[in-house]
Write a structure and sequence with these properties.
Elements: E1 2-5, H1 22-31, E2 35-38, H2 48-56, H3 61-70, E3 71-72, E4 90-94, H4 99-107, E5 114-116, H5 125-131, H6 139-150
């Protein structure tokens, strides 16, 4: 199981502040046993700029340290979906994806893997994601149901 994380609009609000429940959300992602990956314009190949951006937001240093330890950089060009491994089940937490990325998800029958985050309308959404997540180690058996349970909008 892979988890792909965007930063702006997911971990950090559009106002540049840490999202509500981000500490608990990151811990739940780490505790899930899934492989965590950055999927953000702030991190391509190296996570140094992404971590600097998180620090500037005022995010809890312990949460940033968890991300630094467990979240791996991805390498992609024009489309974030270039970095997704479609051979494994995944959740991709992102607020906005482009039409081409949606079409790629559709072609791979992977739309339920995209968890649309809308912190403007649902400021507690990361808490909802935690509460609807399957227990650690049980992602594979529950991936479809949880993909839809996480999806808002």
């Amino acid at each position: 199981m892979n988890i792909y994380l965007d930063i702006d609009g997911v971990l950090i609000t559009r106002q540049g502040e840490p999202a509500q429940f981000v500490d608990q959300f990151v811990k739940a992602c780490v505790d899930s046993g899934a492989d965590l990956y950055w999927l953000t314009t702030w991190c391509r190949i190296s996570d140094e700029v992404a971590l600097r951006h998180l620090r500037a937001s005022g995010m809890n240093p312990a949460t940033i340290e968890l991300l630094a330890k467990h979240c791996k950089p991805t390498n992609w060009d024009a489309s974030k979906t270039d970095a997704i491994d479609f051979t494994k089940p995944f959740f991709w937490f992102d607020d906005v994806i482009f039409e081409e990325e949606f079409k790629t998800l559709e072609a791979h029958q992977a739309i339920p893997g995209w968890i649309k985050i809308d912190l403007g309308s649902f400021p507690h959404q990361l808490k909802d994601c935690i509460e609807n997540a399957p227990p650690p180690g049980q992602f594979r058996a529950m991936e479809n149901r949880c993909g839809f349970a996480f999806h808002f909008g």
